[in-house]
Design brief:
50 residues, mainly alpha
Length: 50
């Protein structure tokens, strides 16, 4: 989640972590869904409190 909050794209995160882009996208979707959020912007605004 830190990489998302830092503004990295799914492609950049995949390269940094050695994962496929699709895996990163799915994890991003799951994080948003579990937190009841609809956008990465909402996640970033919530992140300092997590």
């Amino acid at each position: 989640m830190d990489l998302i909050v830092q503004g990295h794209t799914s492609k950049e995160i995949a390269r940094l972590l050695g994962l496929s882009v699709l895996t990163v996208r799915k994890h991003r979707e799951n994080i948003l869904r579990r937190l009841g959020l609809h956008s990465t912007a909402q996640l970033i605004s919530l992140a300092p409190g997590l």
